[in-house]
Amino acid sequence: MKQQQGGGGGVLGVRFESQRFRLLSIVVGCFLISVTFLLSSRPDTGAFDTLSPKPWLEEARSTQTTAIKTVKTSPKLGGRDFLVDVVPQRGAQGESHGRQPEQQSAGEKTETEWVKDTVIIEERIGGAGAGGTERAEQAEAESGVNAAAAGTDRQPGTTTVEEEEAAHHDDLPVQTTGAAVTTAQPAMLKTTTATATRPDQLPVPGLFSDGAETQKVGGRAMKLQADPATIITTDQTPAIIKQTTPLPPLCDFSDRRSDICDFTGDIRLDANTSSYIVVVDAATPGQLHKVRPYQRKGDETCMGRVTEITVRTSSSSPSPSPQCTRTHTVPAVTFSIGGYTGNIFHDFSDVLVPLYNTVHKYGGDVQLVMTNVAPWWLVKYDKLLRTISRYAPIDLAKAAAAGEVHCFPHAIVSLRAHRELIIERDRSVDGLATPDFTRFIRRALSLPRDAPSRVADGTGRKPRLLIISRSRTRILLNLADVIRAAQGAGFDAAVSESDVGDSISRVGAEINSADVLVGVHGAGLTNMMFLPPGATLVQVVPWGGLQWIAHMDYGDPAEAMGLRYVQYEIGVEESSLKDKYPRDHEIFTNPTGMHKKGFGFMRQTLMDGQNITVDLDRFRGVLQEALGNYLAQ
C-alpha cells in the first residue's frame, strides 16, 4: 500500500514539474518576442544589427557616414522652424552621433546634430512641437534610401554665400526664405542669412508642391519635402519668385521685304555710331543686330545705298551707356529715304505706304528718324509727313555731326511693308487696308473728290479722262490720236505732264479731278493714289510678256484701292521693237524666256527699249469699257 502511494506521489511530482516548465517556456517565449519586437523597432541598436529589417544600415554604418540635421528658428518668419538634413561626404573619420554647436544671430536659435545620410528640407511651425518631431523622425527613417543613392565622398562643413558662389557657379540652391538661406553643395553645408537670391538661384521645381520630389544637386540625390500648411507665399518671400525675364528678340528677320526691329525700354540712339542701345541689367543675355531700314530686302544694289543701323543691348558695366542729350516721351520710327527713292513709285511703295502702316496707331505722337536724307524729298512730301507726325523729323547725319544722343521709351527700326503699294488688312498690326491710306492722302492734301462724277448730277459735264504722258521711254507715239479717240467716245480728254519736281499737292489735285486715268506701264501710274474711289485705271502694257509685273505693280494695287482696272496689252505691230529685231527673233517668239536673263535685261530691252503706237481700233474697245464703268456709278 505504501509503495503504491509513493508511486502516485512521484507521478504528481512529475506533473507539477511539467507545468512549471511550460510556464517558464511561455515566459521566456514572451520575453524573446518582446525583445525581438523592440529590436525590430530600433534598427540602430548596434548589437543586433543582423535582426534589423533594413540591412542597408550595416553598409551605411560600416562607412561611418554622417550628416547634419539643423533646426533653425527665426522670429522674422513668425517663429517658424526649419529642419534641414544634408548628406555629408563619407570619410574615414567622424562619429555616428554627436552634437555641434553653431553660431546664433540675435533672436535666432540653431541646433546642429550629426545624423544619418539624407537631405530633407522641411519648414515647421511652432518650433519643436509634436508635428515637428514626427516629421524629423520620418526624415531619419528615410535616411538610408538617400544614403544609398549618395555615392560621392564629402565632409560636412560650413562656408559663406560669397565663398561658395566664387568656388561653385553651377551650385543649385534648394531653399531660400526671407530669414535664412540653406544650400546643399557637393562637399559642404552652408547656413547663412540672406534677404534675396540671384535669378539663377531660384528654388528647384517641386519645392513648394505637396509630397516629396527628388532632385540632383552637385551629382547627389536630394529629397525635398514641404508641408502643405507651410507653403511659402509671394508676400512672404518676393525675392524667391522674382525672375529675370529673358529679353525677347529685338529684331525680326523673317519678312521677305524688310527686316524690322521693335523694342521697348531704356533706349539710347547714339547718332554718331548709328546705333540704338537698349540698356539692360547684367544678367540679361546680350543681343546685337544690324539692319538696313529700307523695304527692298535682297536687292543688293538698292540696299547698298542705305545706311546700316545697329541695334544692341548694353548693361551699365563694364562701360556705361551714352548719356542722353535729349529725352523724348514718344516712340521713334527710323527709316531710310535712300535706296530707289526719287522715283514716285518707290517713294510710295517703299516709304510712304509702309510708313503710314507702321505709325498710324500713334496718332501723330511719334518721332520720325531718317537716314540718307535728301532735302528736296522732305520738301516734296512735307504735307504728308506733317500729318503723320507732330514733330520735325530727325536727320540722323545732322544729329551725328552734333554729337547727339536721343533717348526714347520705344523704338522701331525699318517699316512694315506688305505688297507693292498695298496694305494687307490681315497682316496690318492696326487692321489697316489700302483704302485707309488713299483716304489719308486725300485728307492730307485736301483733295475734294471721294467719288467719280455722276452723269445725273445736273452739271452736264462729261467724264474726265486723263492721260499720263511719258517723255523719255515707253512713249505713246500717237498720243494725239488717242486723245481724239477718247473725245469721240464721250470723254473730256486731257494730258498730264507732271514732273518729279512738281508739288504733290498740285499733281494730286489734277489726278483727283479725273474719272479715268490712262498710262503706259511705269512710275507715273502711281498717281492713281489720288483718284477718287470708283474711278477707272487703264494700263497699257508694253510687249515682252510683262503682263505679270504690270498687274503686280499697278493692277493689284488699283483694285485694292477700290478702283476699276482695265489692262491693255499691245501686240507686236504696236511696239517699236519690230523695227529693231527680225520677226523670228526670240524677243517675239519667246519673250518670257528672255526674262531668265534678269531684271536688268528686261528693264533695258523690254521697258526702256521700246515705244508704243496704240492700235486705235483695238483701243476704242477699252475706252468703251471705261465709259461703261463710269456710267455704272
Q: How would you describe what is shown here?
A:
The structure is a single chain. By secondary structure, the chain is an alpha/beta fold. It contains 18 helices and 25 strands. A hairpin with a 7-residue loop joins strand 11 and strand 12. Helix 13 packs across helix 18. The N terminus is likely disordered.
List keywords for this structure.
633 residues, alpha/beta, ten-stranded mixed sheet, 18 helices, 25 strands
What is the compact description of this entry?
By secondary structure, this protein is an alpha/beta fold. Strands 11, 12, 13, 14, 15, 16, 17, 18, 19 and 20 form a 10-stranded mixed β-sheet that branches. Strands 3-4-1-2-5 form a 5-stranded antiparallel β-sheet, covered by helices on one side.
- DSSP summary: helix tally: 18
Mean pLDDT: 76
Give the % helix.
25-40%
How does the overall form come out from the CA principal axes?
Answer: elongated
Radius of gyration, taken over Cα atoms and rounded to an integer in Å: 45 Å
What is the number of beta strands? Answer: 25
Q: Major beta sheet, specifics?
A: 10 strands, mixed
Structural class: alpha/beta
Strand content: 15-25%
What is the end-to-end distance? Answer: 154 Å
Unreliable stretches: 1-8, 45-54, 63-68, 74-136, 141-242
